[in-house]
Amino acid sequence: MPYRIKRIENLLSQGVRDKVYPGAVWAVGDSGEVRATGTTGVLDPDEPDVRMRPDTVFDAASLTKILAVWASIGALWEDNVLDLDTPLGSFWSEVTDHPLGAVTARQLLTHTAGLPLRAQLKNLYGTDPASIRRGVLHEALNRPPGEAVEYTDRAALILGYLAEHLSGRPLDQLCETRTWRPLGMDSTRFGPLPADIACRCAPTELDQDTGTHLKGIAHDFSARLLGGVCGIAGAFTILNDLTAFLRYMLDHTTARVEAGFGADWCAYSLTVQTGGLQPVRGLFWHPAPGTTDEEDVWVHYGFTGTGMWVSPTQDRWAVLLANKLYYSRDRQPLTDIRNAFRQEAFA
Questions:
Q1: CB 299 within 8 A of CB 342
Q2: Burial class (CB in 10 A: 0-12, 13-18, 19+), 85
Q3: Exposure class string for 315-324: b at 16+ Cβ within 10 A, else e
Q4: Which of 94, 73, 62, 331 is nearest to 223 (CA)?
Q5: For the chain, how big is the Rg over CA atoms in Å?
Q6: CA torsion angle for 249, 251, 254, 255 (degrees, to 10)?
Q7: What does the pLDDT average to over 15-36?
Q8: pLDDT at res. 292
Q9: What pLDDT is recorded for position 256?
């Protein structure tokens, strides 16, 4: 590991020099502990003396789909409240007699539900949250369910609504009580963040309306439109909270209190659920690019520059958090770094 630590440090520091991101934090470990961790770069190039820190708060972006939606749906599944293969319309009156009523939770979790590929919430439904919810739940499908694997943010948005329906609680409260607080993820929360926490947040993209970089406010437009809380994005988190989450996934006895989801949900989710369809998917997680079935490495990314990997077979996890949107939306430079990081972390 010492040799790999140096290679990881060099790799991520080069990303700072190449202006892929201002800074990054990372960690690698197993169910037992954090084996290696580090930081590189600065929080904000406008403040070059403020270094990136282990407790820097990051806009999790689509990691919200895992931390909030996947975990909450897993809790409902473990509670036997939700059957993944029962058509939604048979138990959820909001979608009964609408196209979404024929879709199952499994199809949403594998991105095979045939949903529209773009959110376009404001353009289609306006700005009222109730109108958006109604529009999303009643929208026509893009194709028949089960026909193709097509990633769409709408799947997580709908599953977030479903979790609220089945639990009788808002998504943020459900996440806090069933997942984040039991796992000791005390710095994970939906935004917008209060000023005393936002000051520790890694800034993301330049907001054209204010002329400043977003900080403590979700980058994702759908999350902002819905007040900061939705299944698509909106959660903020820190490195230590993600390491606790991933360690729990590998061994649920590592938590001070057992979360709503457990070992069965983790094991089930990290297996191929899409049959012969491509690209292969588990339940929200997918195999890391460039890995084999034997390596058993699963990943989920966030658009802001976040990512986390887990391998039950290797009893290993890894986290890389970077605020790459500060400079550009160009994905390839970060994609290359992520793949190289994963190779070193799981070597």
A1: yes
A2: exposed
A3: ebbbbbbbbb
A4: 62
A5: 19
A6: 40
A7: 97
A8: 97
A9: 87
